[in-house]
Each structure stands twice: as structure tokens, then as C-alpha cells.
């Protein structure tokens, strides 16, 4: 201690301070009984048979009767076994793969908030979106400039409790308030499995799910959801209906260089983004919308005011610090910090190689083939390497989800995405241990 | 430096660490341009005429056409003047009054979260409410035990993005999913001004606002909202309809000892609480529900899953630390920490004395009179001292809100609460500077 102190500088103080903070946080988290083992149950670690019911219920769809079955969740969990009994849950897109990057970043991205801060409802009353933290808004603009995946000049930023809330805010803002019947909401199949249930769970008189955009033929106003790259299949998309009465909402949750080539800075009327899939911080529940029309942005803000009276300031401040770290990592040319997107790109590239090799070795599964494209951010061409694998079972296997379930691999059936049960969606974003176990087991299914 | 280091102990490290944290936070917040001045604009500090429009729009109601007027908000704000030109905005219940307590608590309640923590969607997959942080759940139970304002044994806890989201989750959970028409939602006037708009903004086919509970006569299922103590008038309430087909939701946002005597531990079927009005942390957007019926709790959880896929982990962890500090402050008998509720009680008692004196001096305003009751927590009898003053203008003044607006005092008209415009609701929770300015100006209106 004495020797340390003789060379005490502010830098040392900082290191000591942050070291202590880790201690406090760890102690705090341990007190919370949210041990790593427990946290992991939901997203891939060993669980008993009853846990397999869980993936059917949570985030699969909004049917009330389905939720009843999640009573099984509260049952106790068996001890881990590392062999074939271990259930691999890749039903959800829980982005825990990114934990290793942020652990390597150390305390540079630690957020510290005093008890007396951020108490007011208001963040910036001069802003149209009065609950948007200005520092978060600035970091959103910096990140899009750095990556080149979206234009921010001339756009209003609306923050949301994840992009799911912003999606509903967009439906509210774009629905004709005086219409005699709800406006149709469509998306090209395979579409994100939550769109139908999130659109219809309140039986709103403003909007109504109308299914696959390919088969939408009504000559009336409609809202088309374009997810690009697409969840579940990873392909780049454009609107398919293209009628005069249509309004398009672009979900760009996956338009980041670790998943797909950044071919142009997006400049559509209404674009949704989220930290869950860009930086991996799903637990923050933070998303943002870039909105061209002022009145639409105002109505989206009104929706979030009525729905949750704003968005957590704590998470906005933390998200600002995370986004700043990501932008900084892209500027660094020396060895000081690893470029976040290069880390993500390399990890996804390796995982897709592993998965394609396993599917080939098994011989029972097909994966989509993607044309390479040039990425302006990474200054090279590559094939998309999506956050989800859109797996198709071969031959006689009609229900791919049940087939994989029989091998204790939990995935999401194509049924939920409006297509055949021969398809399943598999998360590519889980921790290394789980992903390796998955590809190993898949390769041994013959 | 050298002398400090010779007596270096972990306690010193802690103090140094926390001292540095303050520095980091302050720097961080300053970078955020969310300066105290800006934060304050929305809740009472000096603003120009255009700002007066703001209170008409934000959190007043959900009418889309109203939100248009908030375009004025983005206009610039005039420099402060301390005299009569200064607009006093007490329309919202922004609980900034509590900042002084948490500032005095210092860094004891500082939250520190590393970049790699709380990344998963899941908090406790074994819990019915799978996104509820276990440490937060435990602190909720401890606080209710300490205060004695609610029973927690045999209840399920559901966390929400503020109690506004939980209110909607309750409507979703309690509505018959197969009903031919929406269930009626009622509350006795004067009722919380947001109930009608939050119930109807999506034109849900599940539930529909049916107005004042006193005039509800339909012989069909209904949901009655009972806010006790009531927002806006502060009176203790029970259900008024009392029919066999009714379901009651109790909003206990203000059932805390600083506002009203704690006469019994509440044990109703569905009870809502929020940190916004209990500890003053509105910016966290954290509330919780105590729910007796497992299926209702499961459906509320499903609503929040569909609405926002869970609740900010960062704010839950911070709320846990704040609730723990409140519970601890109630245990302390030495001078180490000030009892949070005694602080709040004394502050509210003083403010109500000031307000009644000012109303008396003016002679133009009436305030409700409350019967004293025994508080089991403070072990004494006292009269309720609500978070809002329900002010009635005397004689010829028919529109009290416009009258006070002409004196640059922004309040919320009785119209929004289902009663006469002779009434206004005034926030009692703003910072000392604003409250003192308010009572001074009120006393001079003759």
C-alpha cells in the first residue's frame, strides 16, 4: 500500500476508484441473486424439460392462452449436465454474445448515477421529444455519422422503451384518427413473429394486422413494415406493395456492419433502431426512431407519453455512454481499443462458417445463400451474416421446430413468421459456450 | 497526498472512489447539456409565454389535436426574470421537491453499472414476471413491511415502466378476452386526468372509458379505478359502484406517510405503486403492482412483454438501491441518516401551512379540509397533506385555470378531472424556490 501511494496520481485514483466500483457492482448484483447461472437459463444454459415450455411462451406470441403455459417457468431447474440432456435455447435473440466485448472494454463504459440525479420527468422541454436526454440524442447522431447507415440531418429523434414501443408509436402516429375502420398493417412473409400479436393484442380500432404484404390487394390505406436486413431470414428488403395509399415503416434493427454490408445511408421517412441488436444491451430497453415529418414525430412522442410517460433516463444515460464507446472504438487506429463492429463482424463470420459446416456435415438442413455486397464502412465486399439463422429441414421432416426440440434444441417455428413449419429461426447471438454446443449437436444429427 | 496515503484504509478508498464518481457524473451530465436550468423549465422555472402552451399539451390529455400545440415547446426560452413575469408551472406533479433529500444522502445511493452487465432480456426466468430484477422485488417487500402500507405475502409482483404502464397492463389482464364489446372502465369524479385518455387512446376493443363511477348504472361487467388518497383531491377512497360484476383496481401511488396517515396494510386484489411519488424518482419510470391472482399477474406480464419486452434493468437496479436507502433510513435511530418519510412529512406539513395561509390572505380560494386520522407508521394522528392541492376559485371566477394563468401560474383545470372549471389541481411537489414563489404570488391575488 505504501509503495503504491508514493506513486499516486489521478490516473491511479481513477483506476482504484473504478476497481472499487466493480467490487460494489459485483456485490450488488450478487445480492440480487441474479447469478449468471440464473440469468442464463432463459437464453441457452442447461435447463430441465419444464424449461422447454418457456420458449413456447415468452416472446413467441401474444396469445393469452399460450401465456398460461408459462406457469411451468416458476418450477425449479435441474442441475446442469454437460451432455445430451442439456437443453439449448436459441428461440430468443438474446444478444449475450456481446458480453465478452464489453468485459474486455473494462470500466471505460461504467455508468455512475447519484441518487439525486435524473429525478424529473423532463429531459429537454425545448425538444419536441421532451423526455429525450440531449446527450443520448447527440451520441445517436455521432454513431450514424460514424457508421454511415442512416441520415440524421433533417430528422426528429424519438426515444422509446425499445423499438417495440416505437413500432406501436408509429402505428398510432400513422393511423388516420378519424377513420371508420382500422388501417391495415402488413409485412412480407417471412415477417418478424411479434408483428401480428403486437399489432392486435389490444384489438385497436386504429390499426389491424392484415398479414403477408405479398397478398395484400385492398385498394385502401395501409402501413407496410419493412425489416431490412429481415428478421428472420436476413435478406435485404424493400417495400413490396407500393401503392399510392401506403405508408412504409423501416425497421433497421439489424442494419449494422457486423450483420450486413452498409451499402447506403438510409434516408426513409420513418426508421427504427435499437441498442438491443446494435450494441447487445437488450436489458436497457432503449430504441430510437428517426422521423422526417414533424407531426408524425409529435404523435409518436404523444403515444410514449400516454403509454409510459417517457423513457427511463438511467438507461438513456447509460446508452449514451455505450454509443460513445462504440463510436470511439471506430476512430481508434492504435491498439488502445478494439473496433466494436470489426469484433462483431469477425465473431459472426466465424459462427456462420461453423454453422454452414455443421449443416453440411449433418446433411439434413439448408441455409440461405446471400450475394456479397460492398460495405462502405468496412471498405470491402462480404456476404450478409445475419443475427438469426433461417434453417430449413430437408425431405420428410415437416415440423423442423419439433424435430430439433426432440434433440433438445429450442428454436422458433416458421409458423410464427407466416410460413411453413419446415423452417425455424435460430439465434446466432448467444454466448460462445452455447453456440459451440449447438453447432456440435447439429452436426451429429443424421 | 503522501499524508493521506499513509493512513490509507478501504474506507478512504471508498470515499475517494465515490468522490471521483461524483466528478465523473457531474462531467457526464454537463456533457449532456441537461443542465439544471434546462431540466427545470418544464417544472416550474422561468419560461416565456410560449412555454405556457406546454402545460396544455404534455401530460394534460391524449387528444391528438391537442398535441399539435406543443410545437410551441421547441421555441427558445427567454432569460430568467425573478419578478412577476416569471411563469410558475405547477400543472405537472414533477416531484423535484425530493432532490434536496437525496443530495443530503450523498453518494450512499449512487448506482454503478459496468458496460457488460444487465445485457440480457431476462432477469429471473424462474419468476412469473421474468423481467423483474430479484433484488428490486426484495426491496419492494422490505419497504412495504417497514412502512406497513401493504401486504405482500401471497402476492405476485409485476414491475412496470411506471404505474401508467401497469394500469394499462391491468386493463388488458382484467378485460374478458372473448367479450363482444369492450368492458366499461370507471372512476369516481374527480378522477385522475389521464385515466380517460390512457384508456381510450388506442380505441381498444377490450376496454373503454365510461366516465364517473357515481353515474355508472349498466348491469354489466366493469372495472373501477380507486385512487386512494385520490389524485387530484387527496381524499381517502373506497369503491363506489359495488356491483357483483365489478373488478376494482387500487392505485396507491400516494399511500405513503408523507402524504396521508397509514391506517392499515392494504390487501386488495390488485394494487399499483410507483417510485415517482414515493421516493421522487419520476425519471426512472419504475412502478410495481401487487397482484393476488396468478393468472392476472401472468396476463399483466404478457402485456408488458408485448408492449415493451420488459422493463429497464438499469432503472430497476437503481430503484432497488433507492428503496433500500429509504427502508434503512426508517430503521436508523442515531443521527446517521434522516428518516425519509419524516423528511417528506415535515416538508409537506410546512407547505400546506404556507398554502392555507396564502389562500386565507388572498380570500379568493378554498382548499379541502381533511379529518385527522391515526398513522400506524408515524404513531400519531394527522390530517392528510396531499401531493396536489385541489383549489377552488370563489364567487364569480368560473374558470380558475384561466384566472391563475392570467397571473402566470400554470395549473390543471377541473375539466380534465371530470368536474367544474372552478377547480384546479396544483402540484405541491416542486422545488422550494418555486413553491415559495407560488404561495407568495397567490397570497397577493385579491
Automatic annotation (TrEMBL), chains A, B:
GO molecular function ontology, one term from the record: transaminase activity
Q: Give coiled-coil spans as residue ranges.
A: none
By its UniProt entry, which InterPro entries does this protein fall under? Alliinase_C (IPR006948), Ethylene_sulfur-biosynth (IPR050478), PyrdxlP-dep_Trfase (IPR015424), PyrdxlP-dep_Trfase_major (IPR015421), PyrdxlP-dep_Trfase_small (IPR015422)
Keywords noted in UniProt = Membrane, Pyridoxal phosphate, Transmembrane, Transmembrane helix
Source organism, top-level taxon: Eukaryota
PANTHER family in the cross-refs: BIFUNCTIONAL ASPARTATE AMINOTRANSFERASE AND GLUTAMATE/ASPARTATE-PREPHENATE AMINOTRANSFERASE-RELATED, TRYPTOPHAN AMINOTRANSFERASE-RELATED PROTEIN 2
The name this protein goes by in its record: Alliinase, C-terminal
Q: Which organism is it from?
A: Dillenia turbinata
Q: What is the lineage of its organism?
A: Eukaryota, Viridiplantae, Streptophyta, Embryophyta, Tracheophyta
Amino acid at each position: 500500500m505504501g509503495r503504491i501511494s508514493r506513486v499516486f496520481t489521478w490516473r491511479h485514483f481513477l483506476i482504484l476508484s473504478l476497481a472499487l466500483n466493480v467490487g460494489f457492482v459485483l456485490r450488488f448484483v450478487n445480492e440480487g441473486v441474479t447469478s449468471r447461472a440464473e440469468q442464463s437459463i432463459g437464453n441457452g444454459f442447461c435447463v430441465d424439460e419444464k424449461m422447454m415450455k418457456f420458449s413456447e411462451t415468452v416472446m413467441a406470441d401474444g396469445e393469452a392462452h399460450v401465456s398460461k403455459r408459462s406457469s411451468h417457468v416458476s418450477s425449479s431447474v435441474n442441475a446442469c449436465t454437460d451432455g445430451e440432456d442439456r437443453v439449448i435455447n436459441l428461440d430468443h435473440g438474446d444478444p449475450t454474445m456481446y458480453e465478452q466485448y464489453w468485459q474486455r472494454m473494462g470500466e471505460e463504459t461504467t455508468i455512475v448515477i447519484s441518487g439525486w440525479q435524473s429525478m424529473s420527468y423532463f429531459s429537454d422541454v425545448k425538444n419536441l421529444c421532451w423526455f429525450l436526454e440531449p446527450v443520448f440524442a447527440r451520441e445517436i447522431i455521432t454513431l450514424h455519422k460514424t457508421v454511415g447507415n442512416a441520415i440524421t440531418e433533417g430528422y426528429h429523434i424519438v426515444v422509446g422503451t425499445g423499438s417495440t414501443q416505437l413500432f406501436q408509436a408509429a402505428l398510432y402516429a400513422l393511423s388516420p384518427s378519424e377513420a371508420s375502420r382500422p388501417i391495415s398493417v402488413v409485412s412480407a412473409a417471412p415477417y418478424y413473429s411479434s408483428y401480428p400479436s403486437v399489432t392486435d393484442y389490444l384489438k385497436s380500432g386504429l390499426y389491424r394486422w392484415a398479414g403477408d404484404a405479398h397478398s395484400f390487394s385492398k385498394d385502401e390505406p395501409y402501413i407496410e413494415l419493412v425489416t431490412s436486413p429481415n428478421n428472420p431470414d436476413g435478406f435485404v428488403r424493400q417495400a413490396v406493395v407500393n401503392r399510392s395509399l401506403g405508408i412504409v415503416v423501416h425497421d433497421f434493427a439489424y442494419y449494422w456492419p457486423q450483420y450486413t454490408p452498409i451499402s447506403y445511408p438510409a434516408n426513409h421517412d420513418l426508421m427504427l433502431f435499437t441498442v438491443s441488436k446494435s450494441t447487445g444491451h437488450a436489458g436497457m430497453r432503449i430504441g430510437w426512431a428517426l422521423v422526417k415529418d414533424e407531426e408524425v414525430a409529435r404523435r409518436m412522442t404523444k403515444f410514449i407519453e400516454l403509454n409510459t410517460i417517457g423513457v427511463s433516463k438511467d438507461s438513456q444515460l447509460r446508452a449514451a455512454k455505450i454509443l460513445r464507446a462504440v463510436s470511439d472504438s471506430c476512430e481508434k487506429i492504435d491498439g488502445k481499443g478494439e473496433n466494436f463492429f470489426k469484433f462483431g463482424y469477425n465473431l459472426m463470420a466465424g459462427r456462420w462458417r461453423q454453422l454452414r459446416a455443421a449443416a453440411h456435415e449433418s446433411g439434413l438442413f439448408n441455409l440461405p445463400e446471400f450475394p456479397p455486397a460492398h460495405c462502405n464502412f468496412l471498405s470491402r465486399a462480404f456476404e450478409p451474416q445475419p443475427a438469426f439463422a433461417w434453417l430449413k429441414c430437408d425431405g420428410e421432416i415437416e415440423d423442423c421446430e419439433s424435430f430439433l426440440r426432440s434433440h433438445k434444441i429450442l428454436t422458433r417455428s416458421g409458423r410464427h413468421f407466416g410460413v411453413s413449419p419446415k423452417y425455424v429461426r435460430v439465434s446466432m447471438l448467444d454466448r460462445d459456450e452455447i453456440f459451440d454446443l449447438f453447432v456440435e449437436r447439429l452436426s451429429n444429427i443424421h
